[in-house]
Amino acid sequence: MGEHVQDDEGRRQGGGARGPAGRHGGRRRRGGRRRGEGRGQPRQGLGRGRREPARGRVPAGGLPGQARRRGGQARDGRLRRRGRRRLDRPAEGPRARAARDGRRRPPALRLRRLAEGAYRVDRHQRTSDPDVYAVGDCATIWSNALRAETYIALATSAVRSGIVEGHNVGGTPLEAIGVQGSNAISVFGLNLVSTGLSVRAAEQAGLDVAWSDFADLQRPGFMRENAEVKIRIVYEKGSRRVVGAQLASTTDVSMAIHMFSLAIEEGVSIDKLKLLDIFFLPHFNQPYNYITMCALGAE
Ligand SMILES: Cc1cc2nc3c(=O)[nH]c(=O)nc-3n(C[C@H](O)[C@H](O)[C@H](O)COP(=O)(O)OP(=O)(O)OC[C@H]3O[C@@H](n4cnc5c(N)ncnc54)[C@H](O)[C@@H]3O)c2cc1C
Q1: Sign of CA dihedral 118, 121, 126, 127
Q2: Where is the composition biased (Gly residues) (predicted)?
Q3: Ligand 1 geometric centre to CA of 138 (Å)
Q4: pLDDT tens digits for 166-220?
Q5: Residues 140-144: what's their mean pLDDT?
Q6: Separation of 292 CA from ligand 1 center, angstroms?
């Protein structure tokens, strides 16, 4: 809201001083009054109790309210949007109200954060203040691939953290099970789906990983409708647990990623996938399924 007010104010001040009349009507001279405004009437946009500048003069540094904003006026004469409180309005909020009423200010809320700025939460979405919960993009999340707290901003994580938080605040304790950061993107018909860590992300996080790649037609060669599928499975060298998987195809193979998501969550090893029972029907896949083949290729 503050931004809109500022922007609106900026348009009125800037537009009135230099350009055509703003949407509130009436041409306005620099530092002058609108038609119909009496001398005794306070003008909008000026601070309470502040003296209006002499007609036609703008004090050094600009009008009150403009003056203290860093950046001030842009070249087109409009105030830059800064997202700050209007200086001609009293501050809101419990600390400001307490200060005005002469009461002791409540202590500022200081919650522990990750370097990225996300509020650190436990498996119940509770922050470092037990009375404050955080969910969604503003909160950290547990990564089953990293086996560590991390920051993943996704709607899928946001809605799940909301469910966990709602239960705990409502009195039915529920622990978050962590996420894999599964996600997808479709670029000009090439569908890319992923869960857990890529090789680069794993290495950046300090994991010692290996990977297996495989590419083949999705269906047997005699099927008219067909498309290539590329798959990579990333696994930890020591434990051999799967920590990531990525698939790419012009056809929709996205549902396969959910199985890898569960595999990462459950700490399944790459070797478990080698003989996993995966159905075959020519309309969907090959008897030697691309998941089977990729897992079999792991050293
Ligand atoms: C372009 C884009 C595409 C995306 N696509 C996907 C996708 O395909 N899949 C996926 O999983 N995720 C996607 N995401 C991420 C996903 O949108 C976010 O992770 C998710 O919306 C986070 O939800 P949230 O409720 O935490 O925050 P938000 O959805 O950002 O909601 C926060 C709300 O709080 C309001 N707000 C902020 N400050 C204040 C305040 N001071 N007072 C009152 N209200 C306030 C905001 O206006 C907003 O409505 C995408 C994000 C972007 C930007």
Answers
A1: negative
A2: 13-23
A3: 9
A4: 999 999 999 999 999 999 999 999 999 999 999 999 999 999 999 999 999 999 9
A5: 97
A6: 37
> Whose alpha carbon is nearest atom 27 of ligand 1?
137
Classified as helix, coil or strand, 178 is coil
pLDDT at 133: 97
* C-alpha of residue 153 to centroid of ligand 1, in Å: 9
- Enumerate residues lining ligand 1, CB below 6 A: 136-137, 153-156, 158
- Residue ranges of domains in the chain: 1-32+54-105, 112-179, 183-296
**Span from the CA of 151 to the centroid of ligand 1 (angstroms):** 14
CATH: 3.30.70.3040, 3.40.50.1240, 3.30.450.20, 3.50.50.60. Which one for 112-179?
A: 3.50.50.60
Q: Is the pLDDT of residue 30 over 80?
A: no
Lowest mean pLDDT among 30-34, 118-122, 198-202: 30-34
Backbone angles phi, psi at 217, to 5 degrees: -70, 145
d(CA 250, CA 186) in angstroms, rounded, equals: 9
pLDDT (tens digit, 9 = 90+) per residue, 53-86? 444 444 444 444 443 444 444 455 454 555 555 5
What's the pTM? 0.70
Query: Ligand 1: distance of its center to the CA of 140 in Å?
Result: 15
- CA gap 90, 258 in Å, rounded: 52
- Cα separation, 207 vs 197, whole angstroms: 10
Lowest-pLDDT choice from 25-29, 106-110, 288-292: 25-29
Spatial distance between the Cα atoms of 84 and 88, rounded to a whole number of angstroms: 12
Nearest ligand 1 atom to alpha carbon 135: 26
The token duo for 232 is 């990579």
Residue bearing the CA closest to ligand 1, atom 21: 155
Pocket test for ligand 1, best of 137, 157, 179, 195 (most atoms within 8 A of CB): 137
Q: Is 112-179's fold the same as 183-296's?
A: no
